[in-house]
Design brief:
single chain, mainly beta, Immunoglobulin-like, five-stranded antiparallel sheet, globular
Length: 117
């Protein structure tokens, strides 16, 4: 019964994003998440977007009831990434992690954003 969702990669062609004051960046500056803003309410069909100097980013969406509900990889095109999330939540709050991995699979440049559902 592991129905983990994912995202449709839209190759950095995000329609809109919150003001830059609501963007969240990794400590290293490698990843900046433009959408969703911290504490935003997410629903299936919403877009995650941002910019990165990496060639691809990984994402993981977890809720407070069942854990990981969507995960995968998005391509960075011309410095930007975006994807349309597809998930089914069982909780009311959760967290979106966006990060890069090295050749050994170790996560780094992580951005953690608390979200609601």
């Amino acid at each position: 019964m592991n129905n983990v969702g994912g995202a449709t990669d839209t190759h950095g062609s995000s329609q809109s994003s919150p003001p830059s004051s609501q963007w969240t960046s990794s400590a290293s500056g490698v990843i900046t998440v433009k959408s969703p803003a911290p504490n935003a309410t997410l629903k299936s069909g919403d877009t995650i977007s941002g910019s990165s100097s990496a060639s691809e980013i990984n994402y993981r969406l977890s809720d407070d009831k069942v854990g990981v509900i969507a995960q995968g990889t998005l391509t960075v095109d011309s410095g930007n990434f975006s994807g349309i999330l597809h998930f089914q939540t069982h909780g009311t709050s959760g967290r979106l992690d966006i990060f890069t991995t090295n050749a050994m699979g170790v996560e780094y440049n992580e951005v953690q954003i608390n979200v609601g559902f």
